[in-house]
Amino acid sequence: MKKLLSVTLFLLASIAAWGQQSADDAIKATVANYFEGVTTGDAAKLNKAFHESAILRTFNAASGKIQDIPVKTFISKTPAGGVKASTKLISYSYAGVSGLAAVEMQFDEFKYIDLLSLLQVNDEWKIVARVFSRVDLDTQLKGSAGTATKATSKTPAAATPAKKSTANSKPKKDDGW
To answer: Which helix (H) or strand (E) holds 39?
Structure first.
């Protein structure tokens, strides 16, 4: 009986570890499909990486406006033979059905740093947004992993309570709050 229990626990732990590993592998595969699609001009790989409603977004300094590019336009304008660039997955993270990946695509005279938003849709990880910057070759991604902080109130004890604002209250419907 103890042996059966041990085997069952081992199998359950293995299945849990496999599920964790497969999410990591699936996100990496999505990013690899993006890289391969761009560098080889493979529209099928790009369609596999991106959700059909994905948007590509950057700031256009010349116009002073945010520029949105539908994924279909991006894929249709990818050169048939691909682009000559080296690629690098800088980092990725995920929780539940949402994830982020920071990637780099380096060309001869510049590089793109992309911040990819991913969602797990029907058991597949898809890029739903690509926010990107064209930068100099020596530019590095900056920042750090956040750490959990405890929210504190710094209201003085003698202060008169202010009228309660509803500006930051949670909406009644489930809209992502």
So the answer is: helix 2-40
Q: How many CB atoms lie within 10 A of CB 57?
A: 13
Q: What are the CA-CA distances from residue 19 to residues 8, 15, 16 (Å)?
A: 17, 6, 5
Band (pLDDT 50/70/90 cuts) for residue 175 is very low
Structure tokens, 142: 């900056």
| 11 neighbors 32 (Cβ within 8 angstroms) | no
Q: How many CA atoms lie within 13 A of 8 on its CB side?
A: 5
pLDDT digits 0-9 by tens, 112-146: 999 999 999 999 999 999 999 999 999 999 987 65
Buried b / exposed e over 114-138, threshold 16 CB at 10 Å, is bbbbbbbeeeebbbbbbebeeeeee
| pTM greater than the 0.85 cutoff | no
Find out whether 4 and 42 touch, Cβ atoms under 8 Å. Answer: no
